[in-house]
Amino acid sequence: MDLLGSILKSMDKPPQISDKQKALIKSFCDFQVEETVGKFLKNGNAKEYKFPPMDQVHRSIVHESAEVASVLAYTFGEEGVDRYIIIFKREHAPSEDQLSTLRRGEEWNDEIAKKLQHSRAREAIEAEEEEKSRKRKLEFVPTSDYKQKYEHLIGKDAALEAARKTEANSNYGCVPSENKKDQRSIEQTLADIRAKKQKLASQNEKSSAYNDPNNTTP
Asked: What does the alpha-carbon distance between residue 107 and residue 86 come to, in Å, rounded to a whole number?
């Protein structure tokens, strides 16, 4: 066995804590936490109480005592660095803004609460105004129509007459579409086309004969 091993073997082991001693330590911690929570509840002006940073075992004791005393307990901070607990009376429960601020590691006080409250109120007013503006656009109704606008220029009767819906009138060339359809049969249509071609050819022959200088036919 080497020298270092013999030295370590000869050294006394660190004292071990028995289960009974652990129970006594836990009881003492429980007593301290319960006493702190009790004083907090008796203080009528206190709304919250912040415990110093502690390990997970001690935090579990605080949570147990808070549950028994019917108070709210929230944990903040970084584990192994500055993890701590704040207890609140139920009638003074923290808002979501306060919890979010504390979880970000930022400070929370009445001034910050007022600023956030004003910001929330301003956002609510802006949202309400935007909604009203949107509804006004959807429900817009003209204050006057064009008949009233031009009544002083063309007269009331003329304005009303101009506003009427235009109706078809056969006296003014409004011919129904049914009357515009070709009612002839195919045979009749072909016969009419041939007749027009013959007439056109005859007219062309007469025109050519008239313009021919050698033609002596009167």
From this structure: 13
Return the C-alpha torsion angle 106, 110, 111, 113, nearest 10. Answer: 70
* Residue that is written with structure tokens 């270092």 in the block: 4
Closest CA to 101 of 87, 93, 114, 113: 113
CA 173, 176, 177, 180: dihedral to nearest 10 degrees?
-60
Return the higher-pLDDT residue of 169 and 24: 24
Q: In terms of C-beta distances under 8 Å and separation of at least 24 residues, what long-range contacts does 41-47 make, across chains too?
A: 41/69, 41/71, 41/89, 46/89, 47/88, 47/89, 47/92
Q: How large is the average pLDDT for residues 188-207?
A: 78
- How deeply is 29 buried, as exposed, middle or buried, from its count of CB atoms within 10 A (0-12, 13-18, 19+)? middle
Which residues, including other chains, have CB under 8 Å from residue 53's CB and lie 6 or more apart? 77, 81, 82, 83, 84
Report d(CA 143, CA 155) in Å as an integer.
20
Average pLDDT over the chain reads 76
Using alpha carbons, select from 112, 111, 57 the residue that is nearest to residue 85: 57
Higher local confidence (pLDDT), 165 or 216 = 216
Task: Classify burial at 85, counting beta carbons within 10 Å of its beta carbon; exposed 0-12, middle 13-18, buried 19 or more.
Answer: buried
Token output for 209? 């004969």
| 43-47, 112-116, 120-124, 133-137: which is most confident | 43-47
Distance in angstroms (rounded) separating the CA atoms of residues 19 and 148: 99
**Owner of token pair 């949202």:** 127
